[in-house]
Design brief:
This protein has helices at about 5-15, 20-30, 35-45, 80-85, 90-105, 110-125, 170-190, 200-215, 220-240, 255-265, and strands at about 60-70, 70-80, 130-140, 145-150, 155-160, 160-170, 245, 250-255, 270-275. The protein is an alpha+beta fold and about 280 residues long. It is globular, with a radius of gyration of 24 Å.
Length: about 280
């Protein structure tokens, strides 16, 4: 490796990890200049400072969506503090990575390869842990796609984002309002799945256990307990499946009712939705 490039890599690694020059130099040489592998190597070697910055929790940040020709990408990039998330350099970085994500079809490995140097430089400059947490992509694939950013601080950048795909015989202009409002519904109501059959069996099993435990000591007979349990589970399913949720703009109707009204004699099917909220699950 060229001496200037080696020194630059060592400096970047020291900025990220806080490890001394010699250990960083050895790690860079051993991994042939790969920053990520160098961080991993230093951690495996048990060098205490190596993970100091990288182990701090980065649960703030931003969601960004990019779109071109019915292809959409969405990314979440995290920082440690909301202060950094509002920093113009961080926002510009998020915007640039979002554009790269669209070109890379949302494939995180490809995004990381293309943006690693910019990420390392930003971490060095800002002094916080910054992570590219997750990405998603929806392409044409016989669907019409929509997006929504809640509380946007800039066009297509905010704290909560949704991608939604509809399969339909209608043209986009005929379902534009429906698509937008469905994406808003997903943002506001956070469904777990499109319909009952799509809910993860483990989630239903866990919910049944919670309900059973809740009703165990009520003193009611078995038949009544079973009916109450069934009612509670059905309510859980209705509240957490998009098609069975109350329509936020007209709560007396279900989402499936609104779709049928707009579809008329034609077809509108929700194929997929993806919802990212900053820091969720961290």
């Amino acid at each position: 490796m060229v001496a200037d490039n080696l020194l630059k890599k060592v400096k970047q690694l020291r900025e990220i990890t806080g490890v001394g020059f010699r250990d960083c130099k050895n790690a860079i040489e051993e991994t042939k200049g790969d920053i990520e592998k160098s961080i991993e190597l230093l951690r495996k070697q048990g060098i205490a400072k190596a993970s100091k910055r990288m182990e701090r929790i980065a649960a703030e940040g931003l969601i960004s969506i990019s779109e071109e020709d019915n292809n959409f990408s969405m990314i979440e990039i995290n920082s440690e503090t909301d202060f950094v998330a509002k920093n113009s350099e961080f926002i510009n970085f998020v915007e640039n990575v979002s554009k790269a994500a669209l070109k890379k079809d949302g494939k995180m490995e490809s995004i990381l390869i293309s943006e690693m140097n910019n990420l390392v430089e930003l971490i060095s400059k800002i002094g916080e842990k910054i992570t590219l947490r997750r990405s998603a992509f929806v392409g044409k694939d016989k669907s019409i796609n929509f997006s929504y950013i809640h509380g946007a601080i800039k066009k297509n950048i905010g704290k909560l984002g949704v991608l939604l795909s509809l399969e339909t015989t209608k043209t986009k202009d005929k379902i534009a309002d429906l698509g937008k409002h469905l994406a808003m519904q997903v943002a506001a109501s956070s469904p777990l799945a499109i319909d009952e059959n799509d809910i993860d069996e483990n989630i239903l099993k866990k919910e049944k256990e919670i309900i059973s435990e809740e009703l165990k000591n009520t003193g009611k007979n078995t038949n009544i307990v079973d009916k109450i349990a069934t009612g509670k589970l059905n309510k859980f399913i209705a509240e957490n499946t998009l098609l069975n949720q109350e329509w936020i703009m007209e709560p007396k109707k279900k989402v499936r009712d609104i779709i049928k009204e707009v579809a008329g004699k034609e077809k509108i099917i929700i194929k997929k939705f993806i919802r990212f909220k900053v820091g969720e699950g961290l």
